[in-house]
Write a structure and sequence with these properties.
Length: 185
């Protein structure tokens, strides 16, 4: 006798990060705008890994960091299956470089398991200066512009995903409450 077993997809999917679980990292500011990169929050990814463990036939997951050459790697194992990855060069969320390497490699290894992969794999996004407030900062005592800074605070207000886990759209909120939207093409 044949038996059909229906596997229910959890809602929400543990691979998908909610807007409040994502860090907005400003990577570059110039007179034409700002480049941001979205990263999954490390604590949220750990919670999602715990959710994943409850859905698959394994008891727990383990994390191991190691260096290979000049790069820090993280290996995440679910029972005897392991996925590892190095810290991405663009991951500069903290002022401490060792924390960046540890957290960045953990996020990369978790993304190899699918956790936060949609956000992790999203390329940097450019926001033009007509949508954010860019302020030139002069060199003291001169009329020379030394650098540009963004005089806005950006947070992620909303995110949607495609069926394959890639990011479909974003809502980035500014300090004044206005919203910048982004849609995948």
């Amino acid at each position: 006798m044949e038996q059909n077993v229906e596997i229910k997809k959890p809602d929400p999917n543990p691979r998908d990060m909610a807007a409040g679980e994502i860090v907005v990292n400003v990577q570059k500011t110039d007179e034409n705008g700002v480049t941001i990169k979205l990263w999954p929050d490390v604590s949220a990814v750990r919670n999602h890994m715990n959710d994943l463990v409850s859905l698959v036939p394994c008891d727990t997951y383990s994390v191991r960091h190691y260096t290979c050459g000049r790069y820090m790697y993280c290996a995440i194992a679910l029972d005897d299956a392991t996925r590892d990855a190095p810290c991405p060069a663009a991951y500069r969320v903290h002022s401490d470089s060792a924390t960046n390497e540890s957290d960045g490699s953990f996020l990369a290894a978790a993304a190899a398991w699918g956790i936060g992969a949609g956000v992790f794999n999203l390329p940097p996004l450019r926001i033009p200066s007509n949508k954010v407030h860019i302020v030139p900062q002069g060199k003291p005592g001169t009329n020379i512009i030394e650098r540009y800074v963004m005089d806005d605070t950006l947070t992620l207000d909303g995110i949607t995903y495609n069926d394959d886990g890639s990011v479909a759209s974003l809502r980035v909120c500014k300090r004044d409450g206005s919203v910048i939207t982004w849609q995948a093409s």
